[in-house]
Amino acid sequence: MDDSYLFGPDLLVAPVLTAGATARTAYLPAGATWTDAWTGELYEGGRSVTVDAPLDRIPLFLRDGARLPVAE
Predict the structure, then answer these.
(1) Partner of 27 at 20 to 30 A CA spacing, among 2, 3, 17, 56?
(2) How far is the C-alpha of 10 from the C-alpha of 34, rounded, in Å?
(3) Residue 26 lies in a domain
(4) Are 5 and 13 in contact (CB under 8 A)?
(5) Which domain holds residue 40?
(6) What angle do CA 59, 69, 33 make, to 5 degrees?
């Protein structure tokens, strides 16, 4: 996938670029376990996953238990 990117070493961002899309497929690099930052679901790297992508959130994945320090 050429439209996802790492923001620092541990945060993979998979923005939705298709108007009206409600899901997004993202490739998670091998050699790590990735956590969906919104749901907490774990994925092994080296494969593509499809996740929900409602209008109000960008799919984000955290590498190997990294934390995303944000407050609502």
Answers:
(1) 56
(2) 9
(3) yes
(4) yes
(5) 5-63
(6) 55
Using alpha carbons, select from 52, 62, 57 the residue that is nearest to residue 29. 62
Non-local (6+) Cβ contacts of 20 within 8 A are none
d(CA 44, CA 51): 14
Instruction: Return the pLDDT at 69.
Output: 78
pLDDT digits (tens, 9 = 90+) for 19-39: 999 999 999 999 999 999 999
Domain count, the chain: 1
- Cβ atoms 54, 27 nearer than 8 A: no
Q: How confident is the model at residue 72 (pLDDT cuts 50, 70, 90)?
A: low
CATH code for the domain of 31: 2.60.40.1180
Instruction: Using a cut of 0.85, tell me whether the model's pTM lies above it.
Output: yes
